[in-house]
Amino acid sequence: MVWGLIPWFCLMVAGLAASVALLFWGYRSGQFADQDRARYLPLRGEEALPEEGGRGAFAREVYALAGLMAALGVALAIALGIAVLR
User: Fold this and answer.
1) Which of 4, 7, 18, 28 could form a disulfide with 79 if both were Cys (CB 3.0 to 4.6 A apart)?
2) pTM of the predicted protein model
C-alpha cells in the first residue's frame, strides 16, 4: 500500500523543489527589486521596462524553465499512469 504512494511523494518533492528554485532564481535576477513601481503598473497602463543588455526574448532561463516544466510534466504523466494502472 505504501509503495504505491512513492510516485506521488516524489512528485510533491519535485514540485516543492522547483518552486523554491524558481523563487530563488527570481530573487537573484531582480524580479522583486522594484516593488513600488511594479505595484502601480496595472493601474497606469505602463509597459514594463525592457531587459538591459539587449538579450533576445528567448534567454537561457526560458529554455531552462521550459525543460523543467517538461520534466515535471513527464513525472506527472508517469505518476498518473501508475495510479491508473494499479
Assistant:
1) 7
2) 0.43
